[in-house]
Amino acid sequence: MGPITHIDLARAAFAYPAIDNHAHPLLTEEHRNIFPFEGSYSEAAGEALTDDSVHTLACYRSTFQLAKLFGLKSGEDDWEAVKKKRSSLDYAQLCKICMQPSGIQCILIDDGLSGARDFAEGYKWHDQFTFSPTRRIVRIEVEAQVDPSTVSNLLVTFSHNFEARIVTCANDTEVAGFKSIACYRTGLDISTSGAKEDVEKSLLEAWTEYKETSDLQFKHKALNDHLARIVLRIAGRYRKPGLGDNDITLTKSSPAHMQPVIKAFPETTFILLHTSYPYTRDAGYLTAVYKNVYLDFGEIFPCLSADGQRATVKQILELSPTNKILWSTDGHWWPETYYLASMQSRQVLYDVFADCVRREELTETQAATIIEKMLFHNSNRVYGLGLTPKLDIIM
Questions:
Q1: What is the pLDDT of residues 168-219, one digit of tens each?
Q2: In angstroms, rounded to a whole number, what is the distance separating the alpha carbons of residues 160 and 66?
Q3: Separation CA 220–CA 203 (nearest Å)
């Protein structure tokens, strides 16, 4: 942490409570080491994760911050030492050490992450770390994963049952919004309409694969688009925001692909996740020209270097209205992900806005107010949470 010269700005950045608008559950104590801990700061997999990611600036920074948190001495603060120390800590103690200083007042948890049902705690379990109750984000692909072998008129029954489940979720006061991972599977170029024949063919192909593997996957574009249209219509009717992962394949991951569907569902609130990195400027443009588009600035903490994080936040602020930017940790599996994302994002917000104040582009009061909106008030308004900021939750 650099020198603090703007007291009001620092109070907003480091002490204002936050609403984590997109996160995932923590692992159970029994499964605390089931996944490689390197996944706490990297989206890589396999040898790229275990062998190469440890040489990134993101890893070096995470190592430094976690070593300090765990009280490791200089010279005993490399990545392996951090892993050894965390494994020696009682799990409840580890969770408390990481979550308490984060300043998170409320978490919106997507509990549909692959493996969550088998290895992670339920979303309500996380209430012990927050002042306000945890709410759910419903992953629509998980809601669609039912056994199709019991249906007769396949598409009609499948669509009807899926829509009924989504309506039930929309009426659930503990559900804050819906999320799609269509970008992982078939891209963000979601069609605003589709031929019944194409959807039927996609569903039949998915059903055939299910009978062979007992795993219902959604890798067929016509079917994914069909599900997305159903949810977008219902989400608009019930005023539940819809979140979209902006992930790989890169060529189909720019949120610019979503312009037709954004226009087609003007009553539905779209929240672009993960800072839309590396298409941050595209996302910023969409938030500026469409009333129903918002941008989540998560996952870049701690996955990018500090310079990369500052540069990305600056790109967001180039064009995005500051009342449409939502904070998140994208915390998942390990409590350290919540800690690192919170600490790093708060520091970056201070750095970026202190620079704006120094250049006389904003007053300190304006900068502090914007940070408070980004951390808390924007999510509170968009999700209709009705929360009052608890100003003393950061110890």
A1: 999 999 999 998 876 656 667 788 888 888 888 888 887 777 667 766 666 7
A2: 48
A3: 8
Residue 138 φ then ψ, to 5°: -90, 120
* Encoded tokens for 151: 């249906």
- 3-class DSSP assignment, residue 120: strand
Q: How far apart are the C-alpha atoms of 196 and 155, rounded to whole Å? A: 9
Torsion of the alpha carbons at 28, 32, 35 and 37, rounded to the nearest 10: 130
Task: Select from 209, 216, 324 the least CA-distant residue to 272.
Answer: 324
Rounded (5°) CA angle 38-39-43: 125
pLDDT in tens, 107-142: 999 999 989 999 999 999 999 999 999 999 999 888
**What contacts 202, CB < 8 A, 6 or more positions away?**
220, 221, 222, 223, 224, 226
From the centroid of its chain, how far is CA 117?
18
The values of phi and psi at residue 323, to 5°, are -85, 5
d(CA 326, CA 330): 12
Q: Look up residue 89 and give its amino acid.
A: L
Burial class (CB in 10 A: 0-12, 13-18, 19+), 231: buried
Q: Determine how β-strand 293-297 pairs with β-strand 325-327.
A: parallel
| Percentage of residues in the chain having pLDDT higher than 70 | 90
Residues 266-322: pLDDT tens digits? Answer: 999 999 999 999 999 999 999 999 999 999 999 999 999 999 999 999 999 999 999
Edge-first strand order for the sheet with 104-110 is 18-23, 104-110, 135-139, 175-180, 242-244, 270-272, 293-297, 325-327
Query: What phi, psi does 248 have (nearest 5°)?
Result: -65, 135
Domains, in order of start, for the chain: 7-193+230-382 (3.20.20.140)
CB 378 within 8 A of CB 324: yes
- The pTM assigned to this predicted structure is 0.88
